[in-house]
Amino acid sequence: MEKKIKEKRKGLPELKVNPEKNPIFRFAPNPNGPLSFGHSRGIVINSEYAKKYNGKWILRFDDTDTVRKPPLKEAYDLIQQEVEWLTGKKADKVVIASDRIETYYRYAEELISQGGAYVCTLSAEEFRVFRKEKTNSPDRNRTPEDNLKLWKKMLNGEFSPGEAVLRVKTDMKLPNPALRDWPALRIQDTQKNPHPREEINSKYQVWPLLDFQSGIEDHLQGVTHIIRGKDLMDSTRKQTLLYEHFGWEYPETLYWGRVKIHEFGGFSTSGMRKSIDEGVFSGWDDSRLPTLASMRRRGFSPKALQNFWIELALTQKDISASMETIHAHNVKIIDNTSKRLFFVKNPIKLTLTEKILNIPQEFKTRIHPENDSMGSRKWDFKKGEITIYIEKEDLELAYINSNKIRLKDFADIEIDNCQASIISFNPSEKLPIIHWVERENSAEALLETVINNNLKLIHGRLESSIKIEIGSVVQLERIGYAKLEDKNKLIFLHD
RNA sequence: GCUCGAUUGGUGUAGUCCGGCCCAUCAUCUCGCCCUUUCGAGGCGAGGACCCGGGUUCGAAUCCCGGAUCGAGCACCA
User: Fold this and answer.
1) What is the domain range of residue A230?
2) CA of A155: how far to CAs of A7, A193, A214, in Å?
3) ipTM, 2 dp
4) Is the C-beta atom of A311 closer than 7 angstroms to strand B?
5) A109 and A122 within one domain
6) Where are the alpha helices (DSSP H) in A247-391?
7) What is the nearest nucleotide to A131, using C1' and CA?
8) Residue of A18, A66, A183, A353 with fewest CB within 10 Å of its CB?
9) What is the domain-level CATH number for residue A418?
10) A226 C-beta less than 7 Å away from strand B
11) Mean of the pLDDT values across residues A456-473?
């Protein structure tokens, strides 16, 4: 009698691994743009598993469509940088499909020679009828020799796009229509649509399709586990059929479901690319875009994204998550190190006089409320009278509190027509607490944020008592977290 | 239409293989309260779920049958 211990699983589920060899994972984006937030799931999951099982993971650029999803030249480098940012290190290996076209050709030829593939000269539309009727294409019975001749013609440019395609022989009676004699390589007019990588350009006009390229490459790289979206389930089945022709063993395969983020509408990489070109967005790192570039720019911690995806784990369920969850993860990481600062939006100027109580020489408060080791921030005041700024909205808040309000960490004041005076240093009444700045200890600053899906620059005054490094994330008290992008320029992260 | 796949609180997730330890886990969320000179963080408490219908069984979130719903694929896209 064995007592079964049920322990709650935390993090990623266990994988079937062969103890004899270290597993190899891969993530294969199309470099038709930098990475989107959605891509980060594939990177996090695959790299985490590689780490967990002491394996490797390969970053592979599946850049084999020069017409509909043309690769973006800059994306190759950008993606590698983003991967490094997200995982904290470079991918263990980088493979570019367009560098390996001739390898794919060799396997295509081998498959033709074995009678496992044939050149089909039916148009896509014509073939659709055969697929539907479960009948063989008239080209299916050609000998391997004849197919090889036609294949050479494809390579020599004797066919135009759509006139010939290499199909993997499966079985036209297969219940799943997607699997019936699926296309492996097709012709693209690379004169008209050259590959953006100069070394490739118009060099090839016969290009593998995803199922073929990916299937061959996974085997060549010794990939042991494929973890990808469930939209690629049929791809697994197609590739399994291809592996049977070659006598290869298909890797362990797992899937994740679709993810919808409430706040993001439907963005496709190609759609974003178009909008950026048209000037609708300022660039790939526009705050409104669900790209890694945008999240990185705003100051998200890569660790937060990792935790988010690990928590969602690996299920085939279609899920719909909210940015709030990601924010919650991020706050946990950044809060402890984020310096507190006052930023007054739409500042209203008030003169603080000594009508009731005198103004002290200085103002001092902690940089972080719980973390004393971060020290304090201090403002020196001139004697007699100083100029302070509060938010317009907060002035209204004072009006509904008999013109009284509490300046955070400082004093209760009474306001009388742009003149204010300290009525108490201790919180004497339950007054609303607001943030504020003093003229000599603050500077004009801009806060970039998104309002109603528009980019807005909010003018304000930022406390200048402590030096904030450019690129670091601070908490603007009562507003939210923001990153100092430049001197006197902040970009809003989240609240 | 055909072929896959999924279905646990508002949102995610654990448990489902090997039925009892599950009047169902954890996180997020919402609402209270506490602490705090932030609308931040923290603490405490509360709220809220096994898609439906049958069956098997002493016992079903878990096994079987049927249905519903959602999603994906059926591209010379990835």
Assistant:
1) 10-97+210-337
2) 57, 17, 20
3) 0.87
4) yes
5) yes
6) 269-277, 292-298, 302-312, 323-334
7) B74
8) A18
9) 2.40.240.10
10) no
11) 92
Last residue of a domain, one of A208, A230, A251: A208
Same domain, residue pair A312 and A263: yes
Which nucleotides on chain B have any atom < 7 A from a protein Cβ?
Answer: 1-8, 10-16, 18, 21, 25-29, 36-42, 70-78
Using the 3D structure, point to which of A153, A186, A208 is the last residue of a domain.
A208
Query: Is residue A172, in this structure, part of any structural domain at all?
Result: yes
Report the range of poorest mean pLDDT among A2-11, A158-167, A207-216, A416-425: A2-11
Question: Per-residue confidence at A6, pLDDT binned at 50, 70, 90?
Answer: very low
* Structural element, H or E, at residue A216: helix A210-220
Angle at which helix A75-87 crosses helix A302-312, to 10 degrees, equals 80
> What pLDDT digit, counting tens, does each position of A349-369 carry?
999 888 888 888 889 898 998
Range among A92-96, A129-133, A237-241 rated most confident? A92-96
| H/E element, A66 | none
Determine the 3-state secondary structure of A407 from DSSP.
strand
Q: How many domains does chain A have?
A: 3
Q: Kindly report the CATH number assigned to the domain that includes residue A252.
A: 3.40.50.620
CA to C1' distance (Å), from A8 to B21? 13
Q: Is pLDDT of A3 > 80? A: no
Q: Is the CB of A165 under 7 A from strand B?
A: yes
pLDDT of residue A4: 37
State the Cα–Cα distance between residues A343 and A347, nearest whole angstrom.
9
* Nearest Cα residue to A137 out of A148, A146, A151, A126: A126
Tell me whether residue A1 is in a domain.
no
A271 CB below 7 A from strand B atoms: no
Residues A198 and A231 in one domain: no
The reply to whether A215 and A204 lie within a common domain is no
Spatial distance between the Cα atoms of A33 and A290, rounded to a whole number of angstroms: 12
Q: Give a yes or no: residue A137 inside a domain.
A: yes
Look at residue A5 and tell me if it is in a domain: no
Q: A105 with A86, same domain?
A: no
What is the CA A39 to C1' B6 distance in angstroms? 21
pLDDT 10s digits, A64-96: 999 999 999 999 999 999 999 999 999 999 999
Q: A310 and A355, same structural domain?
A: no
